Amino acid sequence: MRKSILLLVALFLLVGANAVNAQDDTLRVLFLGNSYTGSNNLPRLLIDLSQSGGRTVHTEAVTPGGYWLEDHSSFTPSLTQISLGTWDYVVLQEQSQVPTIDYYRYNSMYPSAEYLDTLIKSCGNDRTTFFMTWGRKYGGQQSIGAYSSPVFSDFFHMQDSLSSAYTQIADELSAELSPVGNAWATALTLDPEVDLWQPDNSHPTLKGSYLAACVFYITFFDISPVGLSYTAGLSIEDALFLQNAAARTMNVNHYKPTPQIDSFLQCQTYPNPFNSSTVIKFTTPTAGILNITVYNTQGRLICTPFDGWRDSGAHEIAFDAEKLTSGIYFYRLRFGESHFTSKITLIK
Q1: How far is CA 170 from CA 110, 210, 301, in A?
Q2: In a 10 Å sphere around its CB, with 0-12 CB exposed, 13-18 middle and 19+ buried, how is residue 233 labelled?
Q3: pTM, to two decimals
Q4: Phi/psi at 137 (nearest 5 deg)?
Q5: What pLDDT digit, counting tens, does each position of 239-273 carry?
Q6: CATH code at 328?
Q7: Is the peptide bond before 273 cis (omega within 30 degrees of 0)?
Q8: Pairing of strands 176-178, 127-131
Q9: pLDDT tens digits for 100-120?
Q10: Phi, psi dihedrals of residue 161, rounded to the nearest 5°
Q11: Tens of pLDDT along 73-103?
Q12: 17 assigned to some structural domain
């Protein structure tokens, strides 16, 4: 009887230790903002994007429409979440116009940010992170009550103001900064036609929110999202373009391929780096339709080396890059519901 009791105690302690270790592997993020964060459920996009990279994220969000940081500083649901003291990151997102209007920047945004940052730290949370938002599609003068911003000539002009406001407060508080708005600027520089705004020229489309999730992924994990399999329903081409825009903005080059899954056993490319041609080797567990596509670092589809039926077993697909220029490319295998993405380097 005594041995049985001791065994049960040991098992209980072991299960408890494993539960703690599992929790330690989970990144906990609290978002405080408004509809810019709530649109397209940005926290959920971050969770799913991170999961495709083999990382577990738990989020909570308090995002009433139109809220300022000043509102959050006295809003019970926000204060209750902060008081838990369990967050690795607490993300603060200001109302979209406030940072561009000097009166509100210095009399509302900054004092509220300082108050919330002090509260976040005193409650035992790890870090404050500022969510740099994006400018309006056509810029323009931003007015709230009796106070207004300068007349912004376009998005980029307004984004400069937002970037300055968020960078200043992040530096003053030694806080993290997630430069989502700057990533929008990068994406628009690469492709002026990319549709990041909803028809109101303010709130984000799914592409805009997905780009934001990619920036937060880099902020939290310090690794490039390029090649992650989760696309949130966007085309592979669009997702890769946005992943690359985020990586360029934050200057991250280190890359890890998406984890291999059962459908592609022992997937590898040899040689890699390569000159002119390489061979993609992989194993499929069943027969089915296989699709292989190659993209450049901007997420543009370059070619489709294979699209057709393959029996189960080991396969080799040759990729001829004779007409391509030197650089980094990504190939993506699609087999049924399974995907695999990896990087290849062409050197001529």
Answers
A1: 10, 23, 38
A2: exposed
A3: 0.75
A4: -55, -40
A5: 989 998 999 899 875 444 444 445 665 688 999 99
A6: 2.60.40.1930
A7: yes
A8: parallel
A9: 999 999 999 999 999 999 999
A10: -70, -45
A11: 999 999 999 999 999 999 999 999 999 999 9
A12: no
Q: Which residues pair with 58 in a beta bridge?
A: 28
- Among 11-25, 27-41, 291-305, the minimum mean pLDDT is found in 11-25
With helix as H, strand as E and coil as C, how does 219-256 read?
HHHCCCCCCCCCCCCCCHHHHHHHHHHHHHHHCCCCCC
- Say if strands 277-284 and 265-270 run parallel, antiparallel, or are unpaired: antiparallel
Q: Are residues 278 and 225 in the same domain?
A: no
- Token pair in block for residue 77: 């649901």
| pLDDT confidence of residue 9 | 37
DSSP characters over 301-345: EEEEEEEEEE-SEEEEEEEE-TTSPSEEEEEEEEETTEEEEEEEE
Question: What is the span of the domain harbouring residue 278?
Answer: 265-346
Dist CA 288 CA 256 (whole Å): 27
